[in-house]
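Hey, quick one: can you model this chain's 3D structure?
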Amino acid sequence: MSIEFRELLKKVGSGKHTSKSLTRAEGAIALEMMLNGTATPAQIGAFLISQRIKRPTGTELAGMLDTYDRHSQKLSPLPNGEKVFILGIPYDGRTKTAPIAPITSLILKTAGIPVVMHGGDRLPTKYGLPLKEIWQQLGLDFPSLTVAQLQRYFQQQQFVYCYTPTLLPASQTLISYREELGKRPSLATLELIWSPYDDPQAQAIAGYVHPPTEAIIRDTFAERGNPPYTLIKGLEGSGDLRISQTTIVVTNQTQSPDGIEYLKPNPYDYGLGGEDVPLKSAPEYYLDLAALLQGQPSPLLNSAIWNGGFYLWHCGKVKNLQSGLDLAKTWLITGQLQETLTKLKTDFPNQSA
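Sure thing. Here's the predicted structure for all 353 residues.
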């Protein structure tokens, strides 16, 4: 048993009226002691569930991110200082709605906008469809690449998916606790905002589900110097905008007095409203995805146009949302995304097109 860790546990686990938040340094130490095994399994489980009940603070998460950064390898910045967009997507995947982020990322790639994604295997307690499997299905086996290969590919293509166990293997240490606790701990929030790219000016785009999480993430970024970010209350906590209703988006890339701006894009205002596409099965999704990329009819089309258009506008490619929607639609119905994917596959290490 660790006496030092017990003191940290007592602070966060003392109940509704007497628990206290950790400092940034204490948050970093707590995660370090969990990763290196100084804390016992009982202490780790108690800490994770206690912090969840108390709700982590931005200061605590900033410290925990400091520890993740010390344990991780990161991709070096692009040589010409291009602005990179980091898509933070829940690692535990999707079970209810079809993922749109792979399509959005291909639209951004087609537009010449650098994109970094990251994630891992199917994780508890949700065990949803992860990005890793989607890219493998599309012929891009990113988990097979070393860090050096990922770096070279990103320098060449300005597009990459980083398999987190490759760049941050220490993160795998605590996965079993998620299954045993039956709830997502604060580590799940860390996954959304940790970055495998070593540039503080890269723009993080992360999803969330609950309004308190938005505030916690904003506080975390503020503690870490307020880098560029956008937070999206998207499908299943992802950055995928809904077509069934208005999506709440908040960004600090604004001139507003309070430093943030809320955007509330409504798909019905642009003739794209409807039911969000359900994820019936992975094989059916892959068929719909393949048809969409080839410019063939697909139930994913309206969601792809809506997300692609918004991201093109938000990332600065076009002057307004309607122009983004028009451009995304043109690329989708003409099969341009399949050409983009084919080029990515052609240049992929050790693989043919």
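One thing worth noting: The beta strands are 85-88, 115-119, 159-163, 203-207, 229-232, 249-251, 261-263.
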